[in-house]
Design brief:
Helix content: 25-40%
Order of helices and strands: HHEEEHEHEE
Strand order of the largest sheet: 1-2-3-4-6-5
Strand content: 35-45%
Shape: globular
Largest sheet: 6 strands, mixed
Distance between the termini: 28 Å
Length: 140
């Protein structure tokens, strides 16, 4: 993902999340050398993106978003596959994330890439209030 994708990623944030990141927050994180961002585009339009922070040998996914009309077309899978490839290539010990417990499609997607339930965060989300499932992909 590059700076030219920021407006599209910010639109996805508004569409997909009850507490979206601002464009400025995305820009700041994109400029962070410890962050990894990937964008999926169709005809130069951002239709999906993922962001991850790398701390030493650990990956922390902070957002995965795909616009509604492009869901169930393999975009989320492609983005997660690329992060897993990145994790292996850069010798990460694990990649982890939180997901709403009601988001069965995302939980299934992550499970397909070897992420397992590693815990739960009570009332992690608001608007609406909901627990988060902590899912982690360990590299051996």
């Amino acid at each position: 993902m590059t700076a030219e994708h920021l407006d599209g990623a910010a639109r996805l944030e508004q569409e997909c999340f009850s507490h979206p990141w601002s464009r400025d927050s995305l820009k700041s994180e994109l400029e962070n050398p410890n962050s990894v961002f990937l964008a999926a585009t169709d005809d130069n339009k951002v239709v999906g993106y993922v962001g991850m922070s790398v701390v030493i040998d650990e990956g922390y996914i902070f957002n995965v978003a795909v616009t509604e009309s492009y869901r169930r077309k393999g975009i989320g899978s492609a983005l997660i596959r690329e992060l897993v490839t990145y994790g292996k290539k850069h010798n990460l010990c694990f990649i982890t994330l939180e997901v709403r417990q009601s988001n069965s499609a995302a939980i299934s997607l992550y499970g397909n890439f070897g992420f397992i339930k590693a815990g739960e965060r009570k009332n992690y989300y608001s608007a609406p209030a909901e627990n988060a499932v902590l899912m982690t992909k360990y590299f051996t």
